[in-house]
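Methods: holo model generation. Sequences were used as deposited, without trimming of termini or removal of tags, and paired with ligand SMILES retrieved from the corresponding compound records. Each pair was processed once, and we did not select among multiple samples. The sequence and pyridoxal-5'-phosphate SMILES for this entry were:
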Amino acid sequence: MTRAFDEDSAFGMATRGIHAGQRPDAATGAIMPPIVQTSTYVQQGLGINKGYEYARGRNPTREALERNVAALEGGRHGFAFSSGMGCLTSLTMLFRAGDHIVCGENVYGGTYRFFDKIAKNFGLEFSFVDTRDPHLIEDAMTARTVALLVETPTNPLMRITDIEAASGIARRRGALTIVDNTFASPVFQNPLALGADIAYHSTTKYINGHSDMLGGIAVLNDDDLAVRLQFIVNAAGAIPGPMDSWLALRGTKTLALRMRQHDSNGRAIAAWLEQRVGSDRVFYAGLASHPQHALAARQMSGFGGMISVEMQTREKAAALLGRVKLFSLAESLGGVESLISHPASMTHASVEPARRAQLGVTDGLVRLSVGVEDAEDLLADLDQAFAGL
Ligand SMILES: *Cc1c(COP(=O)(O)O)cnc(C)c1O
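and the model returned the structure below.
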């Protein structure tokens, strides 16, 4: 209540990350929002309460995170979830049997798996298309299309979708545009400002940034859609606990700072890899040689730390994974520490081999999540690993 500049989107990303949605605790003045670890709230009388009845519906720590990330994305409403997949599951509940969704073919493996193996069983229909080409989005739309879901940049091939063009097509058809903004983070890309209806994140990744919780969050502007989603939050219950909400909220305080370092390390390592293996085998939207670099530079203000590199064979990829010392072999991304992974057998293992090949996720592909260590140390690690191949 005392912060005049709370949630003010005139402020920059760093200021918003530190202050938006949070006030000193009214009872004690504690500068950090308390972790309100409770399942229920005592009511003053029948039908009389302080706005909080049961924690599936509302929790103050969760609300602080929701207001904070909503401010980062430049949106009015935020809804936090137990994981990125919990967020996607809840968003999918906005739709009903017979509805059709156009989805990027190159989305996160778990997104494809949820749609293809679970949501389809409930009567939803999907078309998976290469959303780099707006004509293919247009062609896939039917009279029953209710939503377009895109991820940009994509995992692991860093393909870019033109959010403004894509959401324009969806809007003309009366369909919602939903953007998985996990890879870019709110610091480098704001889908709502480009015309999307919903931006969502796995907060597990850059937003929390310290590899110590799982979470998801959706941000949107439309008040009616917000009422529907709040109903789903309470009715379906894929909510995060107060401790995980608090961890993510602590993460956003350094998000702008961390993204700057991820971006500068990412650019340095992508440039080094390009020298080493050639530009056709390095996937990073920040490289001038990336086929969609101009589009990426237009809709993103930075490129972050996600890079993929194509080794000639699975054996070479395995050798690289085995030789690095500072990069840890692990799934996930977006933490302060650098990770290295093999999409074909890790994040994309649930995608059938034929489909993987068609998407370009080859057995030689290696993905780096470049952390915020000193760039020289990361480069020296890659240098010794490549030298030994
Ligand atoms: C990790 C990830 C998800 C899923 O999030 P979880 O928090 O692991 O459930 C969705 N989309 C992208 C792009 C991701 O990287």
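The chain is about 40% helix and 15% strand.
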